[in-house]
Amino acid sequence: MITGTHTVIRTAEKDDAPRLLEAYRGPVLRATLLDQRREPVQPTRDELGEMLAAKEASRGLFYAVEDPEGRVLGFCGLRGVNQEAQFAEAMLLFTDTAAEAGPAGDEAAAFLLDQARGRLHLAKMMTTALDSETGLAELLARNSFVCEGAQRQAVYSGGRWHDLQTWTRFLDGSGGEND
User: In a 3-state reduction of DSSP, which class is residue 37?
Assistant: First the structure.
């Protein structure tokens, strides 16, 4: 558990499944929750509980972000870690948009950057965001991620097409512009 000024970041647990389910069922479609075909998925609370009890959560790569009073604001994590390529995909998923836009979001991003650079010795992180995820895009930009481009009209949801943006952050001085 890491205690920041505005957050407590801890390994996500099976009991966090109801709050994670809110993100899947929320009004905003999120790129990080799309399946491999770039389609929204609707898991059950039990399925999310099983996922949180296993895989990334059990290896310490999926975290709940709480306010100091213990209310879960969202989740963050690293997935697809490739030690050989020194690369991982960052996941920042806030169910509280005010937290995403404020210091809690920045603390979660800083935590992931520290995990990637300090603990895992990675050189690059990337993530994706839909054009409708303006809060996430602002959070990424504030934390020195660079939008490398967008796949136009890649996801259809809510009666319209969405662009899928790719954001990167180099961590090691390997030629990236945003170390």
Answer: coil
